[in-house]
Amino acid sequence: MTEAYKFIDADVHNEQDDSALLPYLSEPWRSRVQTTGIGYSGSGYYSPVGVMKRDSIPPNGGKAGSDPDFMIKQLVEGYNIEYAILTGVVYNISSTHDPDYAAVICSAYNDYLINEWLGKHPAFKGAMAVSTLDPLLAAKEIDRVGGHPDIVQVIISSAARAPLGQRMYHPIYEAAQRNGLPLAIHPGAEGGGSSTAPTAAGYPTRYIEWHTCLSQMFMAHLVNMVCEGVFVKFPGLKVVLTEGGVAWLAPLMWRLDKNYKALRSTVPWLKKLPSEYIRDHCYFTTQPIEEPANPQHLIDLFNMMDAENMILFSSDYPHWDFDSPHMILQKLKPEARRKIFHENAKQLYRL
Amino acid sequence: MTEAYKFIDADVHNEQDDSALLPYLSEPWRSRVQTTGIGYSGSGYYSPVGVMKRDSIPPNGGKAGSDPDFMIKQLVEGYNIEYAILTGVVYNISSTHDPDYAAVICSAYNDYLINEWLGKHPAFKGAMAVSTLDPLLAAKEIDRVGGHPDIVQVIISSAARAPLGQRMYHPIYEAAQRNGLPLAIHPGAEGGGSSTAPTAAGYPTRYIEWHTCLSQMFMAHLVNMVCEGVFVKFPGLKVVLTEGGVAWLAPLMWRLDKNYKALRSTVPWLKKLPSEYIRDHCYFTTQPIEEPANPQHLIDLFNMMDAENMILFSSDYPHWDFDSPHMILQKLKPEARRKIFHENAKQLYRL
């Protein structure tokens, strides 16, 4: 398929050795990272296929995603990407325990991102990381670096202590709105450290289950954000549910709208159907896209929820389940394809 | 719509005052219930529309669902029900803490069910309750009363301490298979007592969210049961996911099958796609059915997953969100309707 436009990739993971943040850290944090590394809380689930796309190790032998020049060559030029939203991995720090430390790591990363990535290529746009452990510190950080012209998004972890509609998190949304930045929510540390169990029923046994059930985190956050009135309180806020799946959204909206009709007295601040708030405020990235045996089924489901206006293409480069823009969603009509692979992100991120 | 068959209702909640179980309890349990009631762990969420259908209070003023004669008149005769699977509410005891107490309450209820309901009308068939807190005691109870001719199902709570595929629960499945009984999983106590939080992201704020997110519990249990090989180990086992929704199943199967293709090395006991185990072993009851703005969307989604062989009609009588068999799924084709409202349950329960 040949398009008249380049792609916009809404989820590209730049990586770095922990030591890359040292120049951006002051004591006592610098010594901590120097001696014991950043110390993320792992989820405890093992992927037998690894985490990284095998061919994404840069020529210098460093981590996949750590070499801007190689990323430009392999992803940006290799797949005709006009803009790559660099999402990093540092949002995962929210599943540790010390709110000051988590905030400091995010700040160091944001400075590193601005200094060592965002100027390297016009395609690179940045998602600044904040921790949900102290929302007031997160809001301060958004005000500190959110005005940088190449920062186009705030990113937080979907692995949290509570559903993200809870009021303690609202200062983050207020700051994102104030700075005109969409807020991305990204999985990765579900079940690790201070975060909740990765499924409603608790801890499953294996990575295949953890990965399959990741969508539950997004369902729960979304329902809670809508019902707690986040989009009423912050009418300018846009939320990007990144890497959490898409197909579950239609059944969830049906169920939530039905329940709203019976139970609306408990959420009187909502002035329209829950699904209308979702349509007006939320975006969903494609990777990892659900793949029915009959690909037309996914397109049919998209059409049921008018999904073409809510979906952003993402590759998840350089992770193992990378989706090539040439391979996925081939049955989309050209107009829907143009929106999902280019136009929606262009408008959302004001590119 | 006039059918040539009567309906089979797979989820009918008979209720009783706690004191109704006293004749079936020995000491010290009898005194406990007499002085402080059964003592379920409530979920802590408040329904502004109540829990019971307003017109279901029997003439004697007792609890909705507590009078067999009134249930016969209102439900069985009123809605042309050939068989009503009596599911009770006692499965909720699993979210308390003492495994001996939970087992004793289930046994008392099962005796009460057999003595005071099952002989009252040929439509009444019983789901015997067991607690998941001690699976070996549960298996003993299944062997004790599972052979009764009017007991057609074992029922457990979806609110549990862990995903229900975990090996500690397998004695329950072995006993259900040994007794030729399907196993129903039913929600109600999610987030109460010893059970996990009601969503993957933790505790939402309100009942509308709790009710909307209930499906997550079923998704997680189902994924875990399939991946832990429950249906390989117990090839005769049938599982009925009761009152957990239906529409989410298609997207979940797509996601799980896709992940299986990449990650099957970690579940080598599976010999076919996860969705094939689900199709061969699982049933889903209709109430509360998802209701898209365009009802045809639900039928289209059903067709994508060949749902007509996996779905059982249920009313959830006498609960507030009761579904009348005359009102739901009107766009089904006659053949699918016959299966869902009659044939599937007839075969499953050997009626």
Provide the fold topology.
The structure is a homodimer of 351-residue chains.
Chain A: E1 7-12, H1 29-36, H2 68-77, E2 81-86, H3 99-116, E3 124-129, H4 135-145, E4 151-157, H5 170-178, E5 183-186, H6 207-213, H7 215-227, H8 230-233, E6 239-241, H9 249-263, H10 274-281, E7 282-285, H11 295-304, E8 311-312, H12 334-348
Parallel strand pairs in A: 1-2, 2-3, 3-4, 4-5, 5-6, 6-7, 7-8
Helix pairs in contact in A: 3-4, 4-5
Structural notes for this entry:
2 copies of one chain form a homodimer. With 351 residues, chain A is an alpha/beta fold. The first copy, chain A, has helices at residues 29-36, 68-77, 99-116, 135-145, 170-178, 207-213, 215-227, 230-233, 249-263, 274-281, 295-304, 334-348; strands at residues 7-12, 81-86, 124-129, 151-157, 183-186, 239-241, 282-285, 311-312. Chain A has 12 helices and 8 strands. The two termini of chain A are 24 Å apart. At the A-B interface, helix 6, helix 7, helix 9 and helix 11 of A face helix 6, helix 8 and helix 10 of B.
